[in-house]
Design brief:
The chain contains 17 helices and 21 strands. With 495 residues, the protein is of the alpha/beta class. Helix 4 packs across helix 5 and helix 16 packs across helix 17 (464-478). The mean pLDDT is 92.
Length: 495
């Protein structure tokens, strides 16, 4: 016996089949840092993709988020029955959808958007410079003007919000986000967990009622919407029957395609939460047009680095300790300063403003280079006299376009979503996952040529030395359809 009921975006499966649950279990590895050996050790952990399993009578009741609907059908199609399959499919596929192309989109963009509209759930993954924000704005305008859906837009950060709101205001869209008629609203998920609206019991109930009124969710940089705040919002959107997630790297770990074609692969299980809320990838586009130069500069600047046992003593801070000590070292800082003129508008993403970026600016760069600092505080511009100006997004883009910037250090606020014009050079010094590495490179991958600069130590630097080749492998895989060149340079070339 098997019976399927769908309620509040949850698939409820009642079955007496003892094998059913085993089809949805998997094993994953969890890394734990061993202070004694100074290495990460990995152990196997058993998990499953359903939210709960309860004994009922002689059988069991399983609850799955709706994003797993296709997977359930695929895994159990021989026993689930036509009626149950139809019940699940009805919640995942659109009964009617647009077939007319949008005049502002390119042919391939139209192909992708029209395909997406055939479904109610799905991920839209595309390379930087694809035109993701243009595509989201087009879809938002269509849903707003041509359907009766009430739409909630989710973004992970204020920077992402700024970019989307700016695009929607353009003449070809002319949409206010949020809209005055209440049909469109927008939530920045970063900070939701601490907001009074979500912590005060009375306000929380009001919030639940409000969020339950939305029919459709559009999530930009969706893998970063998957946060404690994002989960709170999504769980309250109980009536949102249409859910689309957009990103350049929906698979935050490796930037790979998330689909069910090979079952519970590592890519699927690593993104289990994301799939539950949004389903699998319907669109997955990789770049084909770029020339990617992987530049490795051999240098002695790391040779005097000395690491103490105390740098490794606290497993929670090992990465931060090593990162900070490496990139605040005087010889390292001097060499970075030396290469800036050779790579105009050099983008340097590093998520450490207080210790690393401020040290570079205050002690090595100010008065020597024109600097555009991007952080959670906004856009801060330093001219050659050291004068500081606070800019908005449009003004920051203007100084870049006008060639008035030599170096652009950025915290995580600049990694994602921002459309910064005319950048081709990046110094890549950190990152362990695709969501950081590929999104960072994506900021400079908008033209025909991208230069990814890596500093290659003569000595082994903990974490960093291994990271160089892990990042390189990730980039080469993501841009595998592009022309990739490996270029070796010596520090003597930089006077």
């Amino acid at each position: 016996m098997i019976d399927v009921v769908i309620k509040d975006n949850i698939i409820i499966v009642d079955t007496d089949d003892p094998v059913f649950g085993s089809l949805f279990k998997y094993k994953s590895t969890k890394g734990v840092y061993n202070v004694r050996t100074k290495k990460f050790e990995f152990k196997s952990v058993s998990s499953n993709i359903y939210d709960s399993c309860n004994k009922i009578g002689s059988g069991w009741r399983y609850r799955f988020k709706l994003g797993w609907g296709v997977f359930i059908i695929n895994q159990y199609k021989d026993k689930i029955g036509v009626e149950n399959i139809s019940r699940i499919a009805k919640t995942l596929y659109s009964e009617s959808y647009r077939t007319t192309e949008f005049p502002n989109l390119m042919d391939f963009q139209n192909q992708d958007v029209l395909h997406l509209l055939k479904y109610k759930y799905g991920l839209f993954s595309c390379y930087t410079s694809y035109g993701k924000t243009e595509t989201i704005s087009t879809l938002l305008k269509y849903l707003y003007e041509s359907t009766n859906l009430k739409i909630l837009v989710l973004v992970p950060s204020k920077k992402c919000k700024e970019e989307l709101v700016k695009r929607c205001k353009l003449d070809r869209f002319n949409i206010e986000v949020p809209s005055k008629d209440g049909k469109i609203d927008l939530i920045v998920t970063n900070g939701v967990s601490k907001s009074k609206s979500y912590t005060d019991p009375v306000l929380l109930e009001e919030r639940k009622k409000y969020l339950s009124t939305f029919d459709c969710i559009l999530a930009d940089e969706v893998e970063y919407v998957m946060s404690p705040g994002g989960y709170k919002v999504l769980d309250m959107c109980t009536n949102a029957k249409v859910r689309y997630g957009f990103s350049g790297t929906a698979d935050k770990i490796g930037g790979k395609m998330i689909n069910f074609s090979e079952g519970l692969t590592n890519v699927v299980t690593n993104n289990a939460d994301l799939i539950g809320y949004f389903g699998q990838a319907l669109i997955f586009r990789l770049a084909t047009h770029l020339n990617v130069n992987m530049i490795y500069i051999k240098t002695k600047c790391f040779n005097n680095l000395i690491f103490e046992d105390s740098d490794f003593s606290n497993e929670d801070n090992v990465y931060l300790n090593i990162l900070t000590k490496t990139w605040t070292n005087e010889e390292v800082c001097k060499f970075i300063t030396k290469i800036i003129p050779y790579y105009p508008k050099l983008f340097i993403p590093v998520n450490n403003l207080a210790n690393i970026i401020n040290n570079w600016i205050d002690n090595y760069w100010v008065g020597k280079y024109r600097i555009l600092l991007i952080s959670g505080a906004g856009y801060i511009y330093y001219d050659l006299d050291g004068n500081i100006t606070i800019l908005n997004l449009s003004e920051a883009c203007d100084v870049i376009n006008q060639g008035l910037v030599d170096v652009i250090p950025s915290t995580s606020s600049g990694y994602r979503a921002l459309d910064l014009p005319g950048l081709t050079n990046i110094l890549l010094i950190q990152g362990k996952i695709g969501g950081v590495v590929l999104q960072s490179v994506g900021r400079v991958a908008r033209g025909k040529v991208t230069n990814v600069v890596n500093l290659l130590p003569e000595v082994k630097v903990p974490i960093y030395s291994r990271g160089i080749w892990e990042r390189s492998k990730m980039i080469k895989e993501y841009y595998k359809y592009c022309n990739i060149n490996s270029i070796s340079k010596d520090e003597s070339e930089f006077i």
